[in-house]
Write a structure and sequence with these properties.
Keywords: Methyltransferase, Transferase. Its EC number is 2.1.1.171. Pfam families: Cons_hypoth95. This is 16S rRNA (Guanine(966)-N(2))-methyltransferase RsmD. By secondary structure, the chain is an alpha/beta fold. It has one domain: Rossmann fold (3-Layer(aba) Sandwich), CATH 3.40.50.150. The chain has 5 helices and 8 strands. The chain has an 8-stranded mixed sheet with strand order 3-2-1-4-5-8-7-6. α4 runs parallel beside α5.
Length: 179
């Protein structure tokens, strides 16, 4: 695993061994960012189920100003810290060591990109989008990127958001919601 493009392009990423996290492959990560960017001019990214932190580090590498990563698993938190250190710009990253629901209630400011790759996709994604909208932390131009198993069918609309793009890559499906 490595950063695909941008400021940190080519740098290796550590991943967590075992079945508690499913790191997004380099190929899917590259395709995902080509769908939504591929590069950004500032903004804030929220990675609600950060795993190894690869997606949000990729977003910052491609131009996002800062990232907030949320992860409850202690072993994954250690991997995230190591991956953030690799960037040598740790001040651009904030790691919240807690469950997604608790983190949502503590977030402040606005996010321009939200990354959702929860372990139990469909119900979790709908609930998270609704909670984020209710918390008032989503910018007007926010993109919500959901990564799921290809068998998961997300609703056409959630809260004030509709599917903008959707694509399947191997066993993964990427769905992008916008207002």
């Amino acid at each position: 695993m490595r950063i695909v493009a941008g400021e940190f392009g080519g740098r290796p990423l550590k991943t967590l061994e075992g079945k508690t996290t499913r790191p997004t492959s380099d190929k899917v990560r590259g395709a995902l960012f080509n769908m939504i960017g591929p590069f950004f001019e500032g903004g804030r990214v929220l990675d609600l189920f950060a795993g190894s932190g690869g997606l949000s580090i990729e977003a910052v590498s491609r131009g996002m100003a800062e990232a907030v990563l949320v992860e409850k698993d202690r072993r994954a938190q250690e991997i995230i810290q190591a991956n953030i250190s690799m960037t040598q710009v740790a001040e651009r990253f904030t790691l919240l060591k807690m469950e997604a629901e608790r983190a949502i209630s503590q977030l402040s400011g606005q996010f321009d990109l939200v990354l959702l790759d929860p372990p139990y996709a469909k119900e979790q994604i709908v609930a998270n989008i609704e909670a984020l909208e209710e918390a008032g932390v989503l910018s007007e131009e926010v993109m919500i990127v959901c990564e799921t198993d290809k068998a998961v069918d997300l609703p056409e609309e959630v809260s004030h958001f509709g599917i903008w793009k959707q694509k399947t890559y191997g066993i993964s499906k990427v769905t992008v919601y916008v207002r």
